[in-house]
Structure formats: C-alpha cells, structure tokens
C-alpha cells in the first residue's frame, strides 16, 4: 500500500477550498505543493500565501517541493506558512547538508529532490540524514509530462542503498505517474506516489487516489 501525495499544481485554483475538502475526504496521505521560481525551473507556480491558505484547509501533512534557487533563504518562511516536509533540489544546493540540518532544526521532515540526470549515487553521503528522496521522473517545471522509463532503474538502485544501510528513507516519485504505471513504480521500490493530472483530471479524483494507493 502506497502513500499518495496529490500535486495541487493540477487542481482548480478557483475552487481551492473544495479541492482541499475532496483531498481531506480521500485516502490521500499528503498534500504535495510545488513551488517554482522561474529560475531553477522555467516556470512560476505559487508560493507562501497559497500554502498558508491550504494549511488552514487541511490537517494532512503539507509536502512542499521547492523548485527554487537558494531554498535556504525561504525555509523558515515555508515552515511558518505550514510546511511539514520540505524537499530541496540537490542541483540547487551548494551546501546541501547545511540546508537539510536547517529544515530538520525547524521541526520538519527533510527531503532531497533529484532531477532525471542526477544519479541516485550522488545521495550516498546524505542519505542517512534525510527522510525522503524525491526522484523526479520528469524534468521539473510542469505537470502533465510523460514518465521517463530510466526512473525504474534509479528506484531499484536507491532502494538497494537504503536497504543495505538499514535506513527508513522514503522514496517518492514525482512526474508522469498514471493508473497504468503505478504498480510497476511501486514494485520497483517506491513508497510515495506524487500525482497531479492523474488525480485532478480523473472523473472521480477520490477513486483515482484509491486506485493508485492499492495498485501494488
Ligand atoms: C513537476 C512537479 C510535479 C507535477 C506532477 O515539476 O514537481 O509535482 O505537479 O504532475 P503530473 O502528475 O501531472 O506529472
Ligand atoms: Zn513536485
């Protein structure tokens, strides 16, 4: 049974309250919130004020994915806005260990996101310090893209590293997750599925969440 983290990037922002209510009533585990700065990725999404509002509308953990440069400058602000988990990009951090410690010292779970071109082996010396690895299965910046098949091998390699060291790090997969590929992603070793379009474009989003959750 997987943890499901619907990505609100794909929701109807004119109906944000209803969308939150739907997720609260669903079997979703976390709210996945994609923050983009137009620098680290070629797109701009939403930021602190929206997350503050979402925080008021749910008791479920807010899993904030920062696709931004210099995330350390904003960690505290995102904590105050209501983040429970913060994932920063390996490719955006010159002092990743320091940034992880900062996230943890503020009482949050710390995640590291890696782009499709980054080998999971680059996490070798930080794995013991983090709670979540967010493997990007598309290039970050946009919802609705196609899952990159090489991700399966990355999941298997990372799972092996985690297992060999006796760690409890969660593997979360972000981008192009569908009802069709969810089972294979979970069999490869993923613990969390992030899903935007598959949930919010479904005729029955709660049902889609359920299908993803039990697809292994
Ligand atoms: C992409 C974001 C994803 C995105 C996933 O940069 O990090 O979380 O919303 O969207 P889908 O599930 O539609 O690929
Ligand atoms: Zn994301």
Shape: globular
Main β-sheet, in a few words? 8 strands, parallel
Measure the end-to-end span. 7 Å
Ligand catalogue: D-xylitol-5-phosphate, zinc ion
Helix content: 25-40%
Alpha-beta classification: alpha/beta
List low-confidence stretches: none
What number is the mean pLDDT? 98
Count of DSSP-assigned helices: 8
Q: State the CATH architecture.
A: Alpha-Beta Barrel
Order of helices and strands: EHEHEHEHEEHEHEHH
| DSSP E strands, number | 8
CA radius of gyration is 16 Å
What is the total number of structural domains? 1
Residues in β-strands, percent: 15-25%
Q: Which sequence of strands runs across the widest sheet?
A: 1-8-7-6-5-4-3-2
Can you tell me the CATH topology? TIM Barrel
CATH homologous superfamily classification: Aldolase class I
CATH class: Alpha Beta
Structure notes:
The protein contains 8 helices and 8 strands; from the N terminus they run βαβαβαβαββαβαβαα. The mean pLDDT is about 100. Helix 2 (about 50-55) packs parallel to helix 3. The chain has helices spanning about 15-25, 50-55, 75-80, 95-105, 150-165, 180-190, 195-200, 205-215; strands spanning about 5, 30-35, 60-65, 85-90, 110-115, 130-135, 170-175, 190-195. The protein is α/β, with parallel strands linked by helices and about 220 residues long. It has a single domain, classed as TIM Barrel, CATH 3.20.20.
């Amino acid at each position: 049974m997987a943890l499901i983290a619907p990505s609100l990037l794909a929701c109807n922002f004119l109906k944000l309250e209803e969308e939150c209510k739907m997720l609260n009533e669903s079997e979703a585990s976390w709210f996945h919130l994609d923050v983009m700065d137009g620098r680290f990725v070629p797109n701009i999404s939403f930021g602190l004020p929206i997350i503050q509002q979402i925080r008021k509308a749910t008791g479920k953990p807010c899993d904030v994915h920062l696709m931004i440069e210099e995330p350390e400058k904003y960690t505290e602000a995102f904590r105050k806005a209501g983040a429970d988990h913060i994932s920063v990009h390996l490719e955006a951090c010159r002092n990743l260990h320091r940034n992880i410690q900062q996230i943890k010292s503020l009482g949050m779970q710390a995640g590291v996101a890696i782009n499709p071109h980054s080998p999971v082996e680059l996490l070798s010396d930080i794995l013991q310090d983090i709670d979540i690895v967010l493997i990007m299965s598309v290039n970050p910046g946009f919802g609705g893209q196609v899952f990159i098949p090489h991700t399966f091998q990355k999941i298997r390699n990372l799972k092996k590293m985690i297992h060999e060291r006796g760690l409890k790090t969660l593997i979360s997969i972000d981008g192009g997750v569908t009802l069709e590929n969810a089972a294979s992603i979970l069999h490869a070793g993923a613990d969390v599925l992030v899903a935007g379009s598959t949930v919010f474009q479904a005729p029955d989003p709660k049902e889609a969440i359920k299908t993803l959750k039990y697809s292994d």
